[in-house]
Design goal:
The protein is an all-beta fold. 3% of the residues lie in helices and 55% in strands. A hairpin with a 4-residue loop joins strand 28 and strand 29. The longest helix is centred in the first third of the chain and has 10 residues.
């Protein structure tokens, strides 16, 4: 009886935990991010508009328009003076926040999936549906290295010391590349149902999640170490900071925390497909988003707060001191929530 009551508590939405400052757009909001000093928010939308907002008042500031296409993502520089923005048309814009036009436009041949700076921001790594990841000089815009796969390049990143580029292609192929020369160091095809991967920092292991509902822990030679099973499509997974736990989210309406030995530590039940999840800084809280709602969970898997949109939520993230929450979605809004003290 007690067990059933606990399950029922998890299925009943927690009280709305704060008030929202609504940033209204004229199209689906595809991405949003806090500025490094937390005073501003940047958003991108499907109508190609990139907008800077005051995080206290919600007033819109400078905008940049990518004509004729959707803006798919944005990223601040560490100083908060520059932005990366990427588009469905294959462009990566390098924007100075105080300038009206982009400083550089970097070109792929198809939709850009993502872009990041390296640690000292002298180089930019972007990856695309055109099957390439490309390294660019962040000052001149020169395409220094092009890494080519067989299918759409859906993931790319530098390793910890930036000597290696890690990539994943839509056909399930993972590869490691020399970050200076572009020489391929390792290529291996996983099952074509594999949806994504994440390496450990020392590249001794990786997790690979699947359209078939499984997460595999593999060693560096891709030998299986452990398997974690959801009921259906796993949408994503990530390591915690010390790589002793894995947070995964799935179309089976759950987010779960797993130990590398296969033990399920937590199961957070939702009413619909879980589209994303993240830990807070000290890993005492977990944020998830599913359909129209953002959920806040404590370390015991209890839903302690919910934040609702009027349509599908695309993402959510805390500010630096975790007193505010930024979420965005298909209802053509980004929303800033004040989180009530525990």
């Amino acid at each position: 009886m007690i067990r059933w009551l606990l399950w029922l508590m998890l299925l009943i939405p927690a009280p709305q935990a704060g008030s929202a400052l609504i940033l209204s757009h004229e199209a689906v909001v595809t991405a949003a991010a806090w500025s490094p000093d937390q005073t501003q928010v940047i958003t991108s939308a499907e109508n190609g508009l990139i907008t800077l907002w005051d995080a206290q008042t919600g007033e819109s500031g400078r905008t940049w328009q990518i004509e004729g296409t959707s803006a798919r993502g944005i990223l601040w520089s560490q100083t908060g003076t520059s932005l990366l923005a990427w588009s469905q048309a294959g462009d990566v814009w390098v924007i100075e926040v105080n300038a009206e036009t982009p400083r550089l436009i970097l070109k792929h041949d198809a939709q850009v999936i993502g872009a990041i700076w390296n640690q000292d921001e002298t180089a930019i790594l972007s990856w695309s549906m055109d099957g390439t990841a490309r390294i660019w000089d962040s000052q001149s815009g020169e395409n220094v290295i092009t890494l080519t796969g067989n299918e759409a390049m859906t993931q790319a990143s530098w390793n910890t010391d930036e000597t290696t580029i890690q990539t994943f292609n839509d056909d399930g192929t993972i590869a490691l590349w020399d970050a200076v020369t572009g020489e391929n160091q390792f290529t291996q095809a996983l099952d074509d149902t594999t949806a994504g991967v994440q390496w450990t920092r020392d590249q001794s292991q990786l997790i690979a999640w699947s359209n078939m509902g499984s997460i595999e822990l593999l060693d560096a030679q891709l030998n299986p170490v452990q398997r974690f099973q959801h009921r259906t499509f796993v949408d994503g997974a990530l390591w915690n900071q010390d790589e002793t736990a894995i947070l995964a989210w799935s179309a089976d309406d759950t987010a779960r925390v797993w130990s590398p030995d296969g033990t399920e530590r937590l199961r957070m039940r939702h009413n619909d497909w879980v589209n994303g999840a993240r830990w807070n800084a000290d890993e005492s809280l977990i944020l998830t988003w599913s359909y129209r709602t953002v959920y806040l969970w404590d370390q015991n898997g209890l839903n302690i707060a919910t934040f609702s949109h009027d349509s599908l939520v695309n993402g959510a993230i805390w500010n630096a001191d975790e007193t505010r929450l930024l979420s965005w979605g298909w209802d053509q809004t980004a929303r800033i929530w004040t989180i009530a003290p525990n």
